Amino acid sequence: MTQTLFNRQQVAALTGLTSRQLSYWRKTGLVTPNSYTEGGHARYSFTDLVALRAAKRLLEAKVSLQRIRKCLQSLTGFLPHANRPLAELSLVVTGDVVLVFHGERAFDALSGQEWVFPIAELVREVEQLQQQQPQQAELFPVAMEQAEEYA
Amino acid sequence: MTQTLFNRQQVAALTGLTSRQLSYWRKTGLVTPNSYTEGGHARYSFTDLVALRAAKRLLEAKVSLQRIRKCLQSLTGFLPHANRPLAELSLVVTGDVVLVFHGERAFDALSGQEWVFPIAELVREVEQLQQQQPQQAELFPVAMEQAEEYA
DNA sequence: AATGGACAAGTTTTACAATTGTTGTCCTTT
DNA sequence: AAAGGACAACAATTGTAAAACTTGTCCATT
C-alpha cells in the first residue's frame, strides 16, 4: 500500500516546528515518524502530522512536553483503544491540565479522575432530599421562625 | 414575599455538612446564609442549599476550600452576571482544576484561560495546510523518496 | 541536506520546609 | 439550641533550591 510521506522540510513547513524539535520529539518518543529511509532519514505520515500539530497546540497552551508525555502514557492505560491519543481524542486544555472528552464523559488525562458535574442536577438533588425529610420539616417548624423574622 | 428558610439542623440534615463546617464557611464567606434571625441564628435559603451542596461536591472531588474560594472570586470577574456561580454554572472538576462550561466555551475557573480544542479540527487544519503548499510538494518529490523506501 | 553530538540559556519539575487553612472537640455565652 | 472562641491534629499552599528537561546554535558525519 502506497502512503503519502513527508520529509523534514515538508513537516517543518506544514507544522511550523523546527528540525531541532522534531529531532528531540523523535528521540524522546513524543511523536515518532511513521518510518525511516534507508539512509536513516525520518518520514512522517499524515497521522504523524496531526499528532505533531496536536502536540504543538498543547505546547502553545502552556502544557509542557513532560506533561504531554505523561498524559499520553496514562491515556494508553485508560483508553487502550486509542493508539494515537494526540491524533484521535478530543481534548480540553488549560495550562495545568489536559482533559479528555470521551463520549459523554470527561476526565483528567493524567490522573484519570472523572468528574462531570452539572449544577442543574444538584437542584433536583436538593429537592429530593427535601422531600425525603418530611419528619424533619415537621420537627423544626420553619414557618414559625420565619414569622419571627419577616413579621 | 415569603420564602422557605432552613435552620442549622435542617441544613445539616439536607446537605450532610457539619455545624462546624457551616460555621467556618459562613465565617470565611464561602457560602453565607440568606439571612439571620434577630437572635443572630443563620437561616439558609433553597439557593443557599444548592450552593452548599455544590461546594460539598467540589470538596469531595478533592478541590480544596481555598481553591473553591479563589475560583469563585475570579468567576465574579469573568462572569459578572453569575451572582452565585456555585448555584448556577456547569462545572467539570478534577482535583486540580475547576472548568466552567458557559455556552459553547470552556475555561479554567481560576485563570480564565480558555481552551477548547477538538482534534478533529486539526485534521482539517493539516489538510488545508497541505493544499496551501503545492509548491513545496513539487520542490520535494515525496513520491520519489517513497519509491526509495518501498520499491 | 539531514542527522547527531556538545554546549548553553531558559524553563519545568521535584522535594522539602515553613506557613496557612480546615475541621473536630470542648467550653462558654446567648 | 445555636453560636463563638481556643486548642490541636491533619491538610493544603507557598517558597525555594536542586535537578531534569527543551531548544537553539555550531560543528562533524553520512
Plain-language structure description:
Two copies of one chain form a homodimer. Chain A folds into three domains: 1-59, Multidrug-efflux Transporter Regulator, Chain: A, Domain 2, CATH 1.10.1660.10; 61-116, no CATH class; 119-150, no CATH class. Helix content of chain A is 53%, strand content 13%. Chain A is elongated and about 75 Å long. The longest helix of chain A has 15 residues, at 46-60. In chain A, the strands form two sheets. In chain A, strands 3-4-5 form a three-stranded antiparallel beta sheet, with no helix packed on it. In chain A, strands 1-2 form a two-stranded antiparallel sheet. Mean pLDDT of chain A is 79; it is low at 134-151. Chain A has helices at 8-15, 19-28, 46-60, 65-78, 85-88, 119-132, 134-139, 142-150, and strands at 35-36, 42-43, 90-93, 98-102, 105-108, 116-118. The first copy, chain A, is built from eight helices and six strands, in the order ααββαααββββααα. Chain A is of the alpha+beta class. Chains A and B meet through helix 1, helix 3, helix 5, strand 3 and strand 5 of A and helix 1, helix 3, helix 5, strand 3 and strand 5 of B. The first copy, chain A, binds a DNA duplex (30 and 30 nucleotides) through residues 7-9, 18-21, 23-24, 27-28, 39-42, 64-67.
